[in-house]
């Protein structure tokens, strides 16, 4: 069987009954290779981020640090990608949803599991425990998501997107930054300035006004004190709130950014308001 050049002897990892290999063509599952060889250029396993992978393999094919590591306890499959001698990024697959994201500023040259916990070795020889908290050595972790472009079933009509909201467990939904874009524009993504968030800031108002949840005017749903049959703890409070945005085109998308420290956020739903116009 033939496939493209592997990136590293550590760039292989078992995934169930299959074997995933980091190659110049992408992250290849050997089950596909044994059936089709190299007749299909795009790996089924990593086809959603194929262009991003091949851009990295072309730029960094001779750099050290390519590694694949499955972390079953977290439900993550992590692929370490060198960008330079001391800069790395990770392409991360959620093995439950089979969706990808990217970690940045996690500069480790190697990874290993010990007692089901992930550790990373940095270029300077230091050993770091990874994925153990929602903080970067006490500093907030910044989250960025560019949603898929949507046509709302009206491919031939232009839309004017006017408002959006993120329903989540973020205690301060006003700290979630939302921007709108149209017609497959790829925005320049920058880090949030420090004034955009305050990890030590309390909930929106204290004490909470009557009828609200945790003092947030964005959250008007009752708090549930008891878990369901499937949940033994308190169900996290859902917050929400519309923000004005503006984008005009045939397809629209949102750029969502926020920063958190010491706690994660469950993103439950995205709401959009738009006006539909005629074809142009």
Number of DSSP-assigned strands: 16
Low-confidence stretches: 199-228
The amount of beta strand, in percent, is 35-45%
Biggest β-sheet: count, sense, barrel? 4 strands, antiparallel
- Estimated radius of gyration: 22 Å
Mean pLDDT reading: 83
Shape: globular
N- to C-terminal distance = 51 Å
The number of helical runs is 2
The succession of helices and strands, N to C, reads EEEHHEEEEEEEEEEEEE
Helix and strand composition category = mainly beta
Structure description:
Helix content is 6%, strand content 36%. Strand 6 (88-94) and strand 7 form a beta hairpin. It has a four-stranded antiparallel sheet, with no helix packed on it. A three-stranded antiparallel sheet has the order 1-2-3. By secondary structure, it is mainly β. The radius of gyration is 22 Å and the shape is globular. The longest helix is centred in the N-terminal third of the chain and has 10 residues, at 50-59. Residues 199-228 have low confidence and may be disordered.
Q: How would you concisely characterize the structure shown here?
A:
The chain is mainly beta and 280 residues long. The chain contains 2 helices and 16 strands.
Key descriptive features of the protein:
four-stranded antiparallel β-sheet, three-stranded antiparallel β-sheet, globular
Q: What's the topology here?
A:
Layout: E1 12-15, E2 18-23, E3 26-29, H1 30-36, H2 50-59, E4 67-71, E5 76-82, E6 88-94, E7 99-104, E8 110-114, E9 117-121, E10 127-130, E11 141-146, E12 159-168, E13 177-182, E14 243-249, E15 252-260, E16 267-276
Antiparallel strand pairs: 1-2, 2-3, 4-5, 5-6, 6-7, 8-9, 9-10, 11-15, 12-14, 12-16, 13-15
